[in-house]
Each structure stands twice: as C-alpha cells, then as structure tokens.
Design brief:
Helix content: 25-40%
Oligomer: single chain
Structural class: alpha+beta
Largest sheet: 11 strands, mixed
Number of helices: 13
Strand content: 25-35%
Number of strands: 18
Shape: globular
Distance between the termini: 41 Å
C-alpha cells in the first residue's frame, strides 16, 4: 500500500471530529482510545470496552477531555496499522462487545442485483441477460416506491403476474426489512487488515456501507464505515446460503474510527453522505463507485428500530451495517462475467466525514485466523485490573 497517499485520507477531513478508536498495544492488549489530532490517548481506565463507553451519557466529554494513560502518535499508529506491523501498536476495528448486525436490500439498485443473482442462480455469465429482462419490465419506477406502502403492495401483484416476484423484492419494498447477524462479536477486522473471500467463490464483491453504532438502549450514537464482503455466487444459488456468503474469516471490516454524533456531525449528516469505493488490482484493474446514503429506501433509524425493540434487546449494544447501492457490473475478465475480486486487490472505502477504510483482499482461508475472542478479552481486562 502507498502509505504516503493513504495517510492523508484515513482521518476525517473535519479537525473537530470526535473520534473514538481501539488500539492494540503489544505490551498490554486492546485499549479504548480517543483520537485527539496528532495524538491518540488510551482511556481504558475510564471504561474498559467501547461497549461500556458508548453507553455513557458523557461519552463525548470522555473522548474529548478525559485524562488518559498511554499516548501514541496518530501518524505512527496509522503507519503501523497499514503495514500490519505486529510488533508495534496499531488500530483495531473500533467495536468490541457489540453484536454485528446488517440490513440488506435497502437500496433499489442492490435490490435488483439480488434479484438478478437469484435468477442467474449465482452464475455471473447469465447475469447480463437477466439484468436486461428485469430492466425491461421494472424500469426505474420502482425506485419511487415507499417500502410497506399500498403502492408497494400493488407493484408486488404486478410483478407476481409477470413472474418476476422475488424474496429480495419482498424485503426491498415489503413492510419488513432484511436484518441479519453479519459476524460474531469481536470478529471484525479494521483498517489495514486483510479481508477474506472463500477460495472457492467465483463471483464476489465489496459492499461499502454506513455503519451505525447503537447503545444498549437502542440509540444511535456514532457512525463509521464498513465493508460487508459478499459472495454473490453463494447467495445467488440460495438465500439459505446467506451465512456462508457473509460470515467467513475476515469477511467483515469496520473502521477506521467511530465518529460520535455531536453538534458538528449529526444523524442527518450521516443520512446525506456519499460513500466512495475504489478497488485497485495487482493486474492493473481499477474500479470506482459511489453509494449515496440519501438514496436509501428505508431511513437508517427505521432500520435501527427494526433491529432493536421489545422483540430484541442488545445489552452490550450493536452496530448496524445499513446497506449499499453499490453492486459492480463492470467486466473484469471475460465479457458478460462482471466483477469479482482477485487476491491482492486493495479496497478503499471513503467519506470526508468518516475517513477511509483500506483493506487488502485475500482468501478467507489464508487471512490471519481470528483467535482473540470474548474469553481472551475478559481475561486480558481482568489481568489489567480494568474489571474491578
């Protein structure tokens, strides 16, 4: 990775952003930290986990002002992180005990691409023909439909009559969104880490998304970026393969930081942001795209309400991937086969307000094994006297 170029873009452009992070210090273990300009400050003595910190009413004050322990140079941490230097302190994914949830099919374009995957039975060579047929019948009108409305119910009947109804259209314009568990607690990788796709997948892609951090009371208090790595061939063969398509070693990337909502960055700002993606391959291939959160079919806070309520509580909080409109169709190799990842692809997901999440693609089998789980974290925190 080009460190000089990447370092400029990792941190949000707004110098006043309130940023929380997690740092792995080889001498002590994972630390909850505050990013304060050129310095990152360990605030683990105040709260031992990010889950604890975000549940506090004074979380903003802690990140901005609380006295801390160890301090690190922001630039040095970023350099160590992008090099994945295990010998030095480096940034981790900025979440810990929160459940990792995701909402699917929340944008019209991605909804139609899911229908195409299903109709093509996971075969990228058939996707172009299915895409043309679906466009002829549906066109762009479906983008104006409010999910769960009477109009949506009418459109459903029309599509059933045309033989085009799909389970993906059901969750895209029906009353209930798709909410699923993306990955186990503590399994997300962060900035600079390798991301994994199954070696036997032949059709897969990145999914750049806005991710909301939600407290144990169901309040969204921060935002970050995420890559909901997806295997299109697996999910296309059967929706029952969703877990195998979504949850693999290193298949969930979150970061680089959590930006807490405050007067300078609100939920409305998150609703209106554009998230850009760039893929650079070792074969010289490049891919660029944009996912505009403002075009989402369901409001992000409505998605939070579907995930959290009397029907489901999260005592340690959760993070929610809110979906993407990005579904690459550009041919990478043979005409008509669309895009798929190759080993060594560098994926950069960016927003001026949230910074840049950079990762490099490998197979899930070759990516570093996930070994630091909940038991290890609790033992580490107890050994440091942070749970007393």
């Amino acid at each position: 990775m080009d460190l000089t170029r990447r370092l400029r873009d990792i941190v949000p452009a707004d110098e006043g952003a309130t940023l929380a992070a997690r740092v792995f210090d080889p001498d002590v273990g994972p630390c909850v930290a505050a990013v304060r300009g050129d310095t990152v400050v360990d605030v683990s003595a105040v709260e031992p986990t990010m889950s604890h910190l975000l549940d506090r009413a004074d979380a903003l004050d802690i990140i901005r002002e609380a006295p801390g322990g160890a301090q690190w140079s922001t630039k040095q941490l970023l350099a160590n992180t992008l090099r994945q230097d295990d010998a030095g302190p480096r940034f981790l994914a900025p979440v810990d005990l929160q459940v990792i949830k995701a909402a699917g099919v929340t944008f019209v374009r991605s909804m139609l691409e899911r229908v195409i995957e299903e109709r093509a039975a996971g075969d990228p060579a058939r996707a172009a023909d299915v895409r043309r047929k679906l466009s002829d019948v549906v066109g762009g009108a479906i983008s104006q439909i409010r999910p769960g409305s009477e109009q949506a119910a009418t459109v459903k009947q029309v599509l059933i009559a045309e033989g085009l109804w799909s389970q993906y259209l059901e969750v895209g314009i029906g009353p209930d969104p798709e909410i699923f568990t993306k990955a186990p607690v503590l399994s997300a990788v962060g900035l600079g880490a390798q991301i994994g796709v199954l070696a036997r997948s032949r059709w897969n892609n990145p999914e750049p998304e806005l991710v909301l951090a939600v407290t144990s009371t169901g309040t969204a208090v921060a935002a970050t970026l995420g890559n909901d790595v997806n295997l299109r061939d697996f999910e296309g063969r059967s929706a029952l393969l969703l877990t195998e398509a979504k949850d693999n070693n290193a298949s969930c990337a979150i970061g680089p930081f959590l930006r807490l909502f405050d007067d300078s960055f609100t939920v409305d700002d998150a609703r209106g942001m554009d998230i850009t993606l760039r893929v650079e391959g070792t074969d010289g291939f490049t891919l660029a795209g944009t996912s505009s959160v403002g075009q989402i079919s369901r409001d992000p806070l409505d998605l939070v309400r579907h995930a959290f309520g009397p029907h489901h509580r999260y005592p340690d909080g959760f993070v929610l991937f809110t979906g993407t409109m990005f579904a690459p169709t550009e041919d990478r190799d043979a005409p008509g086969e669309g895009f798929t990842h190759k080993d060594g692809d560098v994926v950069a997901i960016s927003s001026p307000a949230l910074g840049t999440l950079v990762n490099q693609v490998t197979s899930a089998e070759a990516a570093p094994a996930w070994t630091f789980g909940i038991r290890t974290l609790m033992a580490n925190l107890a050994g440091r006297g942070l749970l007393s």
